[in-house]
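thread: overnight batch results

M.L. [08:02]
morning all. the overnight job finished for the chain we discussed friday. pasting input first so we're all looking at the same thing
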Amino acid sequence: MRAYFKNVDFLRFLLCIGIILRHIHNYILYKPEFSHISIYDNIIENMFGFIPVDCFFIISGFFLFFTTDFSKNVYSFMKKKLIRLLPAAVFITALCSLTWSVFNHKIIINMNNFWALFMLQNVGITNEYTSSENIWFISVLFWVSCLLFYLYKIMDKKWFNLLMVCICFFGYSFYYNFGIDKEPVETYYIFNYGIMRGLAGMSFGYIIYQLYEDLFKQIKDKQETLSTKLIYTYAEGCLLFFVFMNILYKNIDYENPLLIVLTFAVLFILFILKKGYISKILDNNFSKFLGKYTYSIFVTHFLVVHVWIFYIYKYCPNLVLFYPEYNIPAVFITSIIAGIITYHCVEKPVAEFLTKQ
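M.L. [08:03]
and the structure it wrote out:
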């Protein structure tokens, strides 16, 4: 039986909060009337809010190899992934289209949605978003997972390891030199930014998986002294604070976001090793509870943010403009509630039904 990392679910939830804040910034706070409000202005100027997506890819890469049964064929793997990812994505894409139609008082059929429904948004044949723009992540996650699954099955392990290191290095090099501040669906010649981020991040996750397997064999039975536990705890606390302070509220004068990615990778390793008190305390059922809803919250929050700007701001502008201490938490709370509803009404029941077929 493989271990379950409940504390990683807590990290996933915090990363999702960072993504919501990023989209609040992108779609609400870009208006010039927000610039004179200090809280909003600081959010606009001080964010590394796109980094959580890269952290999600690292986590996904690790668990792809940690939990997958590679004796199954690629078609079974693809079916399982589609059942996991597609129901909530289809539901929110359809709901977004319906919502935009209501707002515009006419039926709007976004043909770009078909790219998302067939998981083809980020494979280089389109550079347009669907009704729910964050769906690009799901398309990348699906195809990169399938590619790595297949390559792992057919390649000798030493060559696969070399390939993962090369993809990780050159993927992040491409991302840093060409992809920063670019839209994930854009393509530079044949290289799609979203796919490159996914390949780099999930390859990095595989490298961490190999590192974990080697480290775990050495330290799983080792009894740590109190001083060693305190050192681990201090490292966990510092890295946790550094990563999420700079995701939620940028606090350093350094523009290379890969520093945050590397720091998160170290934090992730410490959490899966569970040698410090913070990683042990967060390894609880409440963290697991939060993690259970993270995917649905991620998928649904985009709709909530847009409803906020098209409806709440339109009819209650003073609430949004002059009461940020109420407005920002309200968007978060609404997104979380919508994600929980989507999980129980769509994601879970549809996945259970399709699994039985």
